[in-house]
Design a protein that fits this description.
It is a single chain. This protein is mostly helical and 297 residues long. Helix content is 71%, strand content 0%. The chain is built from 13 helices and no strands. It comes from Albidovulum sediminis. It holds the Pfam family BPD_transp_1. This is ABC transporter permease. It is found in: Cell membrane.
Length: 297
């Protein structure tokens, strides 16, 4: 019995290494990871990378075009917005907001979802019924409309965005963890731990959770792209991070009035959203193909 218990982490570790090797062979996914890491480095080192102060206004440079367009200046390579602020610097600083909110929401939602999913899947009975009904109720609301309603009640702000998005986001990892727990709780090594006198806490955290983390990580990675889009949508509507803090969604919104005469004001932050979200989606697709046994060869 002891040998079987000791062999389980070794098998899990060997499977993880094999899946990781499969992921590294996916060149498109690895390229996407490099793009995401580039955005992360850009966000962390924003004060060193940004060529200008992102909040400094200069009305003499109002709607100045990109450097390669007539009238542009290489000191402001992507041009300036309606207040004369450097667009490149604001994109660099805006990456901080998008990445921070994406990571914070996913970490908070995944933590809550793991706790709720483990409890529902392991204890079942009335615990599963209560958690299941709460999940069903939250899933009945359209995500963006639900977040808009919460933001309207709580008011705009960075932490309020995190809470508003995490308030519903946790149901996704909860359903994944519940389903995996229901499948794993009857396996032999869990029954062996239960026969040896292990309590529910030990079984859930030491026996079940380590063996169901792969699908949870994959789902959380996929959902991060959705969270970044939702944050940009809230900022676009004026319910997200407030001026003068740079946010990609608010930058796109600011350029609506000048979309014909100054296309660069909205286009470049929109491209930043597109590139980051696309890279996360492709990387998460690679993770799914490598770590989800249903998609492995």
């Amino acid at each position: 019995m002891t040998d079987a218990t000791l062999a389980m982490p070794a098998r899990a570790d060997s499977l993880f290494r094999r899946n990781l090797r499969d992921f590294r062979r996916n060149r498109l996914a690895m390229a996407s990871v490099l793009v995401v890491l580039t955005f992360v480095v850009m966000a962390v080192a924003a004060p060193l990378i940004a060529p200008q102060d992102p909040n400094a206004t200069d009305l003499f440079r109002r709607l100045q075009p990109p450097a390669w367009v007539q009238g542009g200046d290489w000191a402001f390579p992507l041009g300036c917005d309606g207040l004369g602020r450097d667009i490149l610097s604001r994109i660099v600083y805006g990456a901080r907001i998008s990445i921070f909110i994406g990571v914070a929401v996913i970490l908070l939602a995944t933590g809550v979802g793991i706790l709720a999913g483990l409890a529902a899947g392991y204890f079942r009975g009335w615990v599963d019924v209560v958690i299941g009904r709460v999940v069903d109720i939250l899933l009945g609301f359209p995500y963006l409309i639900f977040a808009i309603g919460l933001m309207a009640m709580m008011g705009p702000g960075l932490m309020n965005i995190v809470l508003a998005l995490a308030y519903k986001e946790w149901v996704i990892p909860c359903r994944v963890v519940r389903g995996e727990t229901l499948a794993v709780r009857e396996l032999e090594y869990v029954e062996a731990a239960r026969a040896l006198g292990a309590g529910p806490r030990h079984i859930m955290w030491r026996e079940i959770l380590p063996n169901i983390l792969s699908p949870v990580i994959v789902v959380s990675t996929i959902r991060m792209a959705n969270v970044i889009i939702l944050e940009a949508s809230l900022s676009f509507l004026g319910l997200g991070v407030q001026p003068p803090t740079a946010s990609w969604g608010s930058m796109v919104s600011d350029g609506r009035a000048f979309i014909l005469e100054a296309w660069w004001v909205s286009t470049f932050p929109g491209l930043a959203i597109l590139l980051l979200v696309l890279a996360i989606n492709v990387a998460s697709q690679g993770l799914r193909d490598a770590f989800d046994p249903r998609f492995s060869e």
